[in-house]
Design goal:
The complex is a heterodimer.
Chain A lengths: L8 H4 L10 H15 L9 H22 L1 H11 L14 H16 L4 H29 L2 H29 L1
Helix pairs in contact in A: 2-3, 3-4, 4-7, 5-7, 6-7
Chain B lengths: L20 E6 L3 E8 L2 E4 L9 E2 L1 E4 L5 E3 L1 H5 L8 E3 L21 E3 L6 E4 L2 E3 L1 H21 L8 E6 L5 H13 L4 E6 H13 L3 E8 L4 E9 L2 E10 L4 H15 L7 H18 L4 E7 L5 E7 H25 L9 E5 L6 H11 L12 H13 L10 E3 L6 E5 L3 E6 L7 E7 L9 E7 L9 E9 L11 E7 L5 E7 L7 E6 L5 H10 L1 H5 L2 H27 L5 H17 L5 H14 L1 H16 L8
Parallel strand pairs in B: 1-11, 11-12, 13-18, 15-19
Antiparallel strand pairs in B: 1-2, 2-3, 2-4, 5-6, 5-7, 8-9, 9-10, 13-14, 14-15, 16-17, 20-21, 20-23, 22-25, 23-24, 24-27, 25-26
The chains are: A mainly alpha, B alpha+beta.
């Protein structure tokens, strides 16, 4: 395939490798790129072009999803810097952090029948995550402390899980 | 081609020819075909002057098939051979069919999709749907091409957004069987959004609430500067106006204290119930009266309030998915600028009221709920066929409605592509062997949101063969799941340490294999007349012609991307392909097409690269 699939997501989007991303610019660029490569542009084209278009549109979607999500973006930046955050194996987290997680979990469980307490927990979780993302921003963009950033990213993964759990519980209540 | 078609230079790859493409709304109750004519999307009427073709197919003993109103007229007399609401059976097994007990059909529970025994033999829902599509195709050809003997460039067929892979595949198969070049499967609410959005120059977040004859969809879209981006979609692929008819039917049977009914009487009373339901939209009460074949008479009156009370649980079933879609889009109703109502069933006042209460705003009803989907599909078909006009520079970004996963240990589903991912989308997953020398492994793909595989829909079982024998855990088999712009899944696999392409045997749990489609083509009455080979030849000629045209247009634009040598190779392959077009063996043409394909691969890649660079032109990579 002649298309350069080795470009980084940032290169593809013409953006600097930075954790801070201008969401509006990212979206605008996403639309510009899809306007060029989307399969709808090639529905009447030859097979080869249709196939390449699908691959590229897939690639653009993947890059956009990665850059749009702060967590995925952080992981990606770390990977580009040659740091493997080892999410699969390195799960050792400080005991006090794990205790705190347990407490969150208990509160979610206790509130699982009451939408208003779930919504309260959700808001609390969001505030908490926002602070951690600010720290991550400093670690990645200013201090360039990849090790600290990896640790923070791992912490955020736990928070993401909690947010998902609250979402699922809220969804269940609606059924 | 009609001589009257005039288009501005630069509007299409070949300015002298307008390629007619149609949008088809293949509905549960009614189907429609629309096309863009003189820049305006219009619904095409049949000989009877009606735009709506009842989605009813009747098979006769003599091999003839009646479609639409003709079939409808006899449905109560010949219910077993008159198939209504076939959309509900697409890509479905017998156990998924609701109200099967009240269905007059002689179902045959075959692996994959349910089939129906008729006087004309066993029919698959794909074949029945193809009959409806063929009727619409003929209508379109007569209306658009007249006696020119030309062909439609293609069709966009709409599907409920919440249709799963099996239902989508079945729909596409039906299109192929009807002899249509299916340009795209388009989600119904998205089609409606295109028609609405372009018509009203809408900007902002909109919800499309689409309650049709047999399916319910809710889609949340963001419309901005010519981009239609679906943020989330949800629904119920087995909920629609039919269920309201059925509820009223059950009530009438109860009221009139009727003994179990024959198929004929069931069909008769269901039809009367539907008429009463429609009457109640604008009237306080409706009468259901009929004389049954058994001699019994039914004469009951139902008030609007009674009808609304008995069907309220059905309306309520649409509210959960609506909330979920909004939650998935991470939005609040206050951020939604309008709720566009689509589908005949949204005419019911209590549906309108429920949506108003849920969303806190008056639903938008300024489009014909029966036609808007076909109109939107026609607009997209026109663009896809290459008739780009100014103002058509919009972009559509749709999503996959249900998560795709694979079965892991203990019957659990491991999600690989989450729902509401923008398509096309792909994910690769790595697998390894667990035994020394293992050369095969099987993978089970499912679709759905539940944790247990048994609660999800089984899509396909894949057998990977030809894995090079290695010690356990050494092989790295990378399986790629690709969902294309139609929302359809395909799977490929490669062993990464040796680069061996593992053979994949696909056994779709639902849907049809290519052989089955070929067989159906052979069996179908229409094609029995013309030779299967002739048909294959024609197909390849069309494909080859399309290939020549597209590649030559590309060469005119971007010839500088090729070295003299590359260009000569490609041009010579094009010449050989042109020569094969007049030959009588479809395989020769096919191999010519393949050679051009290979010779133009690098070219296509570079062209796409140039497109991207153009998109980024004037921008600088600011760092690294």
């Amino acid at each position: 395939m002649a298309v350069d699939l080795n470009q980084t997501h940032f290169e593809l989007f013409g953006l600097p490798v930075r954790f801070t991303v201008d969401a509006a610019a990212l979206e605008a660029r996403f639309h510009e790129l899809q306007r060029e490569v989307h399969p709808d542009r090639f529905a009447a084209a030859a097979d080869t072009e249709r196939r390449v278009s699908m691959q590229l549109a897939t690639r653009v979607n993947e890059a956009y999803q990665t850059l749009k999500s702060p967590l995925r973006r952080a992981v990606y930046i770390l990977q580009l810097r040659g740091v493997d955050p080892e999410f699969e194996t390195n799960t050792a987290m400080p005991p006090e952090f794990l205790m705190e997680q347990m407490s969150w979990r208990e509160r979610i469980e206790a509130g699982s029948e009451k939408p208003e307490s779930l919504l309260r927990l959700q808001a609390g979780l969001r505030d908490e995550s926002r602070k951690i993302y600010e720290a991550l921003h400093a670690q990645l963009d200013q201090d360039r402390d990849d090790e600290a950033a990896s640790q923070t990213t791992r912490v955020l993964m736990f928070y993401e899980k909690l947010a998902e759990e609250i979402d699922d519980k809220l969804a269940e209540l609606e059924t | 081609m009609a001589l009257l078609q005039i288009s501005e230079p630069g509007q299409s790859p070949e300015p002298h020819r307008h390629r007619f493409a149609v949008g088809i709304d293949l509905g549960t109750t009614n189907s429609l075909v629309a096309a863009v004519r003189n820049g305006i999307s219009v619904v095409l009427n049949g000989h009877d002057g009606h735009a709506l073709l009842p989605s009813i197919v009747r098979y006769l003993r003599d091999g003839r098939t009646l479609v639409g109103r003709e079939a409808e007229a006899e449905q109560a007399r010949d219910p077993r051979n008159t198939i209504v609401s076939v959309k509900r059976f697409m890509g479905r097994g017998l156990k998924d069919v609701t109200h099967a007990e009240n269905s007059p059909y002689d179902f045959l529970d075959s692996p994959g999709m349910v089939q129906i025994r008729t006087v004309a033999g066993v029919k698959s829902p794909v074949e029945v749907s193809a009959e409806i599509l063929k009727t619409l195709r003929t209508r379109a050809e007569e209306s658009l091409l007249g006696n020119s003997g030309g062909e439609l460039a293609g069709a966009v067929i709409t599907v409920p957004a919440y249709f799963d892979d099996a239902q989508r595949q079945a729909t596409k198969d039906a299109g192929k069987l009807a002899g249509l070049n299916v340009l795209r499967l388009l989600n119904e609410p998205t089609a409606a959004a295109i028609a609405y959005g372009l018509d009203n120059a809408a900007e902002g977040i909109y919800a499309v609430y689409d309650l049709g004859g047999g399916t319910f969809d809710i889609s949340i879209l963001k419309l901005s500067k010519g981009v239609f981006e679906v943020m989330a979609t949800h629904g119920d692929a087995a909920l629609g106006g039919d269920d309201f008819d059925h509820r009223l039917f059950c009530w009438a049977v109860e009221q009139a204290k009727l003994a179990p009914l024959s198929s004929e009487d069931t069909r008769l009373l269901l039809t009367k119930s539907r008429a009463a339901k429609e009457f109640l939209t604008a009237n306080a009460e409706a009468r259901i009266s009929a004389t049954l074949a058994s001699g019994e008479t039914v004469d009951v009156t139902v008030t609007q309030k009674e009808f609304q009370d008995m069907t309220r649980p059905l309306v309520a079933k649409t509210l959960g998915p609506s909330r979920k879609a909004l939650r998935d889009a991470r939005l609040d109703w206050s951020e939604v600028k309008g709720v566009v109502m689509v589908g005949g069933a949204t005419r019911m006042p209590h549906v309108q009221q429920a949506v108003a209460e849920l969303s806190g705003q008056t639903p938008l009803n300024n489009l014909d709920p029966d036609k808007v989907v076909a109109l939107g599909a026609a607009i997209q078909a026109n663009v896809l066929a290459g008739n780009k006009a100014s103002g058509d520079d919009w972009l559509l970004l749709d999503v996959i409605p249900l998560s795709l996963g694979i079965e892991t240990m203990g019957g659990l589903a491991d999600r690989i592509i989450p729902r509401n991912s923008t398509i096309p989308v792909a994910r690769a997953q790595e697998f390894t062997t667990y035994k020394d020398g293992q050369t095969a492994m099987s993978i089970h793909v499912v679709q759905g949101e539940r944790e247990l595989v048994s609660d999800c829909r089984s899509l396909a079982r894949f057998e990977l063969r030809g894995i090079p024998p290695m010690v356990a855990g050494a092989a790295r088999i990378r399986v790629t799941f690709q969902v294309d712009a139609d929302g359809l899944l395909s799977v490929s696999a490669r062993e990464s340490t040796t680069g061996v392409e593992a053979a994949i045997a696909v056994k779709p749990s639902y849907g049809l294999t290519d052989e089955q489609i070929t067989q159906m083509l052979r069996d179908s009455f229409d094609h029995a007349k013309d030779d299967v080979h002739l048909r294959a030849l024609k197909e390849q000629q069309v494909e080859g012609g399309r290939m020549l045209e597209a590649t030559e247009a590309a060469l005119r634009e971007d010839a500088d991307l090729l070295s003299a040598e590359e260009s000569a190779v490609l041009r010579s392959e094009l010449d050989s392909l042109r020569k094969t077009l007049s030959c009588t063996d479809h395989r020769t043409i096919k191999s010519g097409i393949e050679r051009v394909n290979r010779a133009s691969e690098a070219f296509a890649g570079r062209r796409m690269d140039r497109s991207i660079k153009r998109a980024l032109a004037g921008r600088k990579v600011e760092s690294l």
